[in-house]
Structures are given as C-alpha cells and as structure tokens.
Design goal:
Length: about 240
C-alpha cells in the first residue's frame, strides 16, 4: 500500500500507528511532503521542510533480530545506487551506520526502528533525502542535491526509483544473502583506513583505525595494540587523515 500525506509528525511515527492498528503490512510505503517532528538517530530532530523527500518503508524481517542492522545497510546500498544515477558516484561515501554523503557532506539519512504487533516483528526503514534544502546547524555538515549541482528532480521520482531498486535488491538479498551487499558499500566507507573517534555511548568513546565492515555489517576498528574489534552500533565523531 502507498500512503501519501501532506504533513505528518514523522513518517516513522505514522508507520508505528498503522502497525498498532493492524493496518501496516510488508512493503507499505508512507510518504510525507513535510514532517513537523522529523526524527533522526538517538531521538535527534530531522530538518523536514517541503521540497525534500521523507518516507518510511515497512518490512517483515526474515533475519534473526541480532542482524537486523543489515537492513539499514541494504537500504544504504540502494540509496547509493539511486543517488549515483544523479550525481557522480565517485562523490559519494557511506558514513556508517546509516548516512550517505556527497563530497563529505550529509545528503541522506536512514533510521531503522522495530515494532511488534503481538509476536510479529516489523521493521520501519525511515529515509530522508535533502533535495532542495539542508540545515545549516546540524551536528555533521550537510548538503542537498541542489547545492551539489544535481539536476532538478522531484521527490516522487526519487521515491519511485528507490522502490524499484528495493524490489530488485530485496529478491537478490533473499537469494544471495548479505555478503554481496556489504562488499558493494565497503569501498565507499567514509574514513576507511583513517584514525577515527567512535562514540559508543554518551560516556564511552574509543579511538582506532577504521578497517572496514564485517559480514554482519559491524564496523571493524583496529586499536592501538593492533587488535581488531567489531562494533554493532555507534557514531563516528572525528576523523584524522590516513597515516
């Protein structure tokens, strides 16, 4: 089902309400022209004026709960393909775990949330793409497709391209598994082989060299003693040049 509304608090919130009412189903898409209370990671706000793209896709996960983050990375691969048809692919990078960058600036974000209806789990993949507008005061520097010199494109057109790509890649994902997907996105990983600071919580920050991702989509960090550790969640705060 496709639901298009002029204004919402957030598309993820609307998806949760529909699931709770027994209306939400696998492959439902909720689109809003604007969000009054757009949500980013860790409950942060998402700048949501008219002119950008905001939507949520509901899916029924077929993987174990411990690897649900793979669905966010699958979405990142698809977003990279869609946006790479508009802006030169070499300008893209993927900021783990859920942001797409152009020229090192954030242009799109993914918010993955889970909710249950009885025993049935659902995942909500919320996507925001800055088409015409971007915030000037975000924690991480941002941009828009317009500011990057991309050709003019409507939100509906971008959404149609995403859904078409998702349909194809969803089938491939079921057949081939996650391996081919994380290998596609890893070469574009922001800060690959750079020294980074990774925030695991408000009071825990680690430093080390970013060495890529593993088959679960976890970030792999090499610490000062040369040990490789993987992390399922966190936020890259600072990056220092390759040494």
């Amino acid at each position: 089902m496709f639901i298009h509304l002029a204004s919402l608090d957030s598309t993820n919130a609307e998806a949760k309400r529909r699931i709770a009412r027994g209306e939400g189903a696998h492959a439902d898409v909720i689109l809003a022209d604007e969000q009054k209370q757009g949500i980013g990671r860790k409950g942060g706000s998402w700048f949501s004026p008219i002119g950008n793209l905001y939507f949520s896709l509901i899916i029924e996960p077929r993987l174990h709960k411990k690897v649900w983050a793979r669905y966010s990375l699958l979405s990142a691969v698809i977003l990279s393909r869609v946006l790479g048809s508009i802006v030169e692919p070499e300008r893209f990078s993927f900021k783990w775990p859920n942001d797409i960058l152009i020229d090192g600036l954030k242009v799109s974000g993914i918010l993955l949330e889970s909710v249950y209806r009885g025993e049935q789990p659902f995942l909500i993949i919320g996507v925001g793409i800055n088409i015409l507008h971007h915030p000037d005061d975000s924690n991480f520097p941002s941009t828009s497709l317009a500011a990057c010199g991309a050709p003019e494109i409507l939100p509906d057109t971008l959404l149609q391209r995403f859904i078409a790509e998702f349909d194809v890649n969803w089938q491939t994902f079921q057949i081939e598994g996650f391996d081919s997907f994380y290998r596609r996105i890893e070469p574009y990983l922001y800060a690959l082989n750079c020294m980074i600071s990774l925030s695991l919580s408000e009071h825990q920050i680690i430093e080390g060299y970013c060495r890529g991702m593993n088959e679960d989509g976890h970030l792999v960090i090499e610490d000062k003693d040369g040990r490789l550790c993987s992390y399922a969640s966190g936020e890259v705060l600072r990056v220092r040049p390759r040494s």
